[in-house]
Amino acid sequence: MAYVLGIDIGTYESKGALVNEAGKLLLSESVAHQLEIPQRGWAEHDAEHTWWHDFVHLSKAITQKAAAKYGIRPDEIKAVGVSSIAPAVVPVDSEGKPLRKAILYGVDTRSQKQVHECNEKLGVERIFQVGAQSLSAQSAGPKILWIRQEEPHVYEQTAKFLCGSGYLVYKLTDEQVIDRYTAASYSPLLDIHQLKWSEEMASAICELDKLPRLTWSHEIVGEVTKRAAAQTGLAPGTKVIAGTADALSEAISVGAVNKGDLMLMYGSSTFFILAAPDLPRTHTLWANLHAVPGYHTITGGTATAGSLTRWFIDQCLSAAGQKENGMTVDDAYTYAMKLAEQSPPGANGLLTLPYFSGERTPIHHAAAKGVFFGLTLHHTQSDMYRSILEGISFSIRHNMDEIRSMDVPIHRAIAVGGGVKNRLWLQSVSDICQLTQVIPEITLGASYGNAFLCALGLGWYRDLTDMAQWVKVKEEVAPQKTHLLVYERYYELYHKLYQRTRDLMDELT
């Protein structure tokens, strides 16, 4: 029997999965880490001490347990695949050493000035023509330009700008690559039609030779070196695929690969990927490629979700009180959900705008702020937490309405991520979006999807649709009509509240 290893680096946690040829999950491990916010509007990870540290920890733990429990030798693990939060930008020098901490995806909003500068210099419509995406806080190109302008000493020493999965691949193989799905979020640098870096767009941002080699997510790009093997417990010569962004691996992990399949990822933020028949035209969402040639996606996501529920638990349910009562973080989430169940739909007239870290799609407003609206002395923690869940659900509904306006069908919605444990949240999304969500038996997420990409790269399977052989549906969460009128009214107020406070948000810096 042969095996594959998938490892994913998330915003607050990394996970690993050991899977056999038939898709059976044998082992899984996780390790927590911190999101660094050195100042308002910034979000960073340490590539070496967070990403590589977590990879080494998970790889060692899994290979050791595989040997002890199943007698699996390291050389029986035929390939390893990685994914990470994306887009992330880490500049490395000629020896591959990070020159600064990685600048993360749309939760890091420092590059707004560079977004405007690129739009003015290159032209909004031309950027869209080349990359099929409008620039926003999510775009990695302006983040690179920020480094060039604000940290010129770093830029001058930079040999390559790597993404998260690309950095781990480099540590394993000495190869510097980026998969095309992730590269599309390096907008405006990728010509999404020609599938190559654009000299025209790069002229305003960086030299082309500072960008890594383009490849597809499932392609084998190298082998584990002796040096990396000694650190990770893997066998030298183990195949390494290019890997991809965590969200795409999440979609693959639950079989959301057929046209019309929608993956809803409930994590620190929400992210969705809809498998589309062709490259769509949209300014409010993100058109993108897929893990392999011939597939396309419509993607988008909120800036906060699980990070907002965690904020509420930490700040409003008293972390000190949790420790005094012997509550774990999981206990605190369970307690919070029970609290929210005591509040009725509509949270007793309390409405939340969940823009606590700006907002990504579809409003692309980096300066957006969080709002609790309608607070009275009558409201409780139960109402506040329920209102947060409903506010996030309204933001998801906003994105779903954008998809529907494009006349792109959603045949099936599949929920994945840590948030699927919160049944009230899932039900709120189904009720507010009027969308049935399917929950698979295995919701481990991106690390499991990475394992399938390894299997695909090794030739064990024919194409992405074969992932269906790995996925079994556990249950469905169907929309209820009971509270539809309440939610429709509050969804309308949600939009009005944002429109009437938008200018104030921009003023409040």
Largest sheet: 7 strands, mixed
Give the oligomer, counting copies of the same chain as homo and different chains as hetero. single chain
Rg for CA atoms: 22 Å
How many β-strand runs? Answer: 24
Cα distance spanning the termini: 58 Å
Structure class: alpha/beta
3D architecture notes:
- With 509 residues, the chain is an alpha/beta fold.
- Helix content is 39%, strand content 20%.
- It contains 17 helices and 24 strands.
- The strands form seven sheets. Strands 1, 2, 3, 5, 13, 14 and 15 form a seven-stranded mixed β-sheet that branches.
- A hairpin with a 4-residue loop joins strand 2 and strand 3.
- It is globular, with a radius of gyration of 22 Å.
- The protein starts with a strand and ends with a helix.
- 53% of the residues are buried.
- The mean pLDDT is 95.
